[in-house]
Amino acid sequence: MSPALPPTAGQTVGPFFGYALPYDRDSELVPPGHPRAVRLSGRVIDGAGQPVPDALLELWQPDEAGSVVRQEGSLRRDGWTFTGWGRASTDDTGTYTFTTLKPGAEPGKAGFFLITLFARGLPNRLFTRAYLPQDAAVLDSDPLLSSLPEPERATLISRADEGGFRFDIVMQGEGETVFLRYPGH
Amino acid sequence: MTSPNAEATTAETFDTAPPADSNSAATSQSAITAEIVQIEAGYRASGVTELQPRLDYPPYRSTILRHPTKDPRHVDPETIELWSPCFGHRDVHAIEADLTIQHGGEPIGERMIVTGRVLDGNGRPVRGQLVEIWQANAGGRYLHKRDQHPSPIDPNFTGVGRCLTGDDGSYRFTTIKPGPYPWKNHRNAWRPAHIHFSLFGTEFAQRMSTQMYFPGDPLFPLDPILQTVVDADARNRLVASYDHDVSQHEWNTGYRWDIVLTGRGRTPMDEEDAA
Question: How many residue contacts between A and B have a Cβ separation below 8 Å?
Answer without folding.
Answer: 245
